[in-house]
Amino acid sequence: MLPDTTPEGAEATASRGRGRRGADRVALRGDLRAAVPDAAAALVVTAGVFVFLYVRMDSGASATVAVMPFMDDSRTYWMYLLSQAFGWSGLLWAWGTVMLGLLLSGPGVARSPVSRQVLERWHRTTSLTTMALMAAHAIMFAAELVRYETKLGWIDRLWAGFADSFVPGWYDSGTGRTAIPIGQGALYLAVPLGLLFYVRHRIGPNAWRRLHRFVIVVYVLSVWHTLLYGTNVWYDEWPRTVLWLLQLPIAALFLLRLVRPARRAERLGGPDRRAGGPRQSWVGRAAGRVAVVLVGATVVGVIAVVVSGHDGGRARPADPPAAVPHEQEGTP
Ligand code: HEM
């Protein structure tokens, strides 16, 4: 259909555009309000994890202290513990929101006892909460660094905390040189990919749908960051096994979503002339088939990791190392 180029038509199009933009803003405000109970639940979970980590530090069972013995003081390092707690609630909420997203885009939604609308609302609110939790995790880490850098003046302290936490490549110590940029990548991708939904009328629903698929990358980066850097999953003990196990349902649902997507147009099979309707391009189908092989291999890999116990965890040493992993700025 040709666009209506008369002044009345242009005005009607502009007002429709304004109306949609307004609707986007209303949708975001509505979802933010709807996310309040969800965010409150996330705070309760974060508080629970914080208390657990705090008590473990006091009892001498903390893996974090085994990795970094200088941290054996929960009163001093409470902000670090809170950062860890937000990291865990963020990862748990990311897990939940990805599961909901995969349920919605895969075959499961038809058999779900909960309506599609409700699942969609939960998916949107949990994804808003996830972003906030991820940000809180990084902010508390920055706050701890600001507290820690006692040898610097205030401006330099603030800058050191900010740059080490938020500027990719700035943090220059140990595994953090790789793990922190991976976490930053997850955070920086999560925000635009999550919030694009609220501007989908401006960019077009198809562009939104195509971009939103990449949100799985955020999740993969988050898990990778945690496996690489989380001191509570540093050793080959039960927390690391549980973390690996939790990836099985995600990988399985992802595989199902690729093989039997809810949207007919996303099916990987060749053109079905009888069914009619839009079909994947051959590039899309080829990419989809490669993804099926990769995700299938991931399912097998995760099972092999859990069954074999070769999960990349180190053996907890009898005598913990006495090294300070991140020297204070200004230390000669
Ligand atoms: C700016 C981005 C980020 C920064 C600066 C950052 C920083 C850190 C640091 C320093 C640690 C090590 C803490 C420890 O001793 O265990 C860590 C661990 C962790 N991070 Fe991140 N992170 C970022 C993004 C993320 C994201 C997006 C997630 C996903 C939810 C995440 C989840 C976690 C988890 C679950 C741990 C393990 C904590 C533990 O072992 O108790 N991080 N992060």
TrEMBL record:
Membrane spanning residue stretches: 39-57, 77-104, 179-199, 211-230, 242-259, 286-307
Protein localization: Membrane
Membrane-topology annotation of the record: Multi-pass membrane protein
Residue span of region Disordered: 1-22, 312-332
Domain Ferric oxidoreductase: 96-222
Protein origin, superkingdom: Bacteria
GO cellular component terms listed in the entry, alphabetical order: membrane
UniProt keyword terms in alphabetical order: Membrane, Transmembrane, Transmembrane helix
Name of this chain's protein: Ferric reductase-like transmembrane domain-containing protein
Taxonomic classification: Bacteria, Bacillati, Actinomycetota, Actinomycetes, Kitasatosporales
